[in-house]
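Dissemination and training. As part of the outreach component of the grant, students in the summer workshop were shown how a complex can be specified as a set of sequence lines and then modelled as a single object. The example used during the hands-on session is reproduced here so that future cohorts can follow it. Participants entered these lines:
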Amino acid sequence: MNAIGWLNLRSLNQEGIVFAIAVVLFVAAAIGLPGFIDPNNLVAIVRSVSVLGILALGMAVVIIGRGIDLSAVAIMAMSVAWYLQLLNTGTPDGLAFAYVLSGVLAIGLLNGFLVAYADVPAIFVTLATGSFVFGYVRSQLITQDAVPVPQGHWVELLGGLRFLDIPIEVFVFAGLAFLFFLFLRYTKWGRYIYFAGDNPAAARNIGIPVRPMLVLRYVLSAFVALIAGLLTAASLHSINTRVVNSTLLYDIVLVAVIGGIGLSGGRGGVRNVLVGAALIGILLNAMTIIDIPLLYQNLIKAAILLGAIIVDGIINPRDEQTAQQGDI
Amino acid sequence: MKLIKTLMAAVTALAVTAFVAPTFAADDPGPAAYAQALKGKRVMLVPLAMGFDLAQGWAHYLKKEVDAWGGTFETRDPNWVVDAGAQAITDAISSDTRPDVLIIHAPDLNSYSKLMKKAQAAGTYVILVDNPANFPADAFVGSDWDRLGQLEAEAAIKGCGPNSSKKIGLVQGDQANSSSLYQYAGIMKVLDKNPDFKVVAKPDSNWDATTSRNVTTTMLQQNPEICSIIDFWDGDATGASAAIRDAKLDGKVFLVTTGGGEKAADCDKLADGTYGAVVMTDLARQSGDMNAIIKFLLQSGQPAGTSHTYIYTLEKATTKADLKPDSCWDLKALQAEAAAK
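and obtained this result:
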């Protein structure tokens, strides 16, 4: 192996590895599976990971700032379930939406406040608020796990929206990804998130408003969760709060982390989320076409993810900085 | 003073009854024996979760009866978490107010077997509802899932018709729950007898509507000529129906599913054409069966675990054509009734 080749291999980070695996899988599926390369199937792949990807965008911003939001799925399901319940019991639409929006923002603020000002670790705060949101809404505000969208409501119409035969979720995902990209790359507060995530103490010393920004990130994450919930209800014409008990939360963290956003903060961006979502989408779609049972699907998914992490560990051995800083 | 008045009134009433009532009515030993065996007995329902139609319907009908014979009815809500259900059962067995009858909605074939054995050893009758388990309970009340699968397959074949592509897609639940496994077995039995009908894909939804939508989208993408899809539960069949709608195959793909026969979940969706056929559980009758076996067990005097009875609920595939006003029960009406009390 020549020096340049070695250099290239060295520069291959986790994002690159996952991207390579995704491309290999894509090519293999395109050759081996009939109908995989069909434009409609490609749209279906993107759509299947749209809601996951949107949630992962919110999670990514929080993780880059060296936090984590374990309440995202609870906020997503319970806010929309409450909204639909209000509509079903005759609350005017505008008022119902105002209630729900303020509820969502309040939980985001609470998360941010407890992490930023009360100095409670994010993992505990959001775990607790997530359980609280689920428990309170489920026991006090709604009567059933599944809440249907009222007939003819705009949420139902939203689910049927298509441009060029592509479902609306795909455009929302693409639009949000672009906005997050602009925010993280070109705004001052976006750049500050990296500084704060990389070294909060230093960021504070140079005058960055670390704490208010922390609050903003959790509010952003909660708001993004509401959008994801509305899109889910739009497509299914109902929302089932059982999703809070599912593995969706882990899948969100997975998409962000597998794409190469380090849990120790300060690294990664929108591109990592897209790469992670692409791998998961292609993998699930190909396995469904081959008709692999769910148990084996989980096994294969886990094996590929583990493989990517191991390869990353070999190519990018731990350096002084990560050793000192530690992982989550 | 008031006490004396009441006592005197009571004595007079007794005297009047003793002299006036015909003797054959006073001699019927039934009500007294019934009251003695049942009064103050405790019944507890531990479903997979209290938040879905079946559990709420069972609880409604059971509570009505148990209250009427002077017992105590309680529920526990594990909210789909197997551990929480196990904890609820453990607590119930060891508490001072140990239930006399425990009604368990098992999450899979094996999880609660040991606990149910413990409950019987402590003297609690165990009734399994809806989901069978590898355990000789005092009674099983619920669907014969194999038969239910057969009904679904027959409905799908009928929905496809003789001149169709004869291709059927399945959206299974998972590979652990007995209701999913037996349902699959039943479907395959019917399809074995109709060899020209083929299952072209059989992904799992893991009982999740979004997953059901994604796998159905892929399934229809790969096999656009599918004439019928059988989704194993109405709780996630909303996903399969969304995929059919999105593929603009409404009316071309006959969607068959199964559920608790709740109005909004099943009948409304049959009426608007979302579902082609639903194999519905007659919830009032199923709850009635449970009530009957509870009354029997409490009066039998036999130790828990003595007999093993299977009471299968009569199932039927309902389509839009044979939809009647009383085909479904209405959860909203039951909740309003409960709230009015």
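Residues 1-7 of chain A have pLDDT under 50 and may be disordered. Students were then asked to discuss how this feature might be tested experimentally.
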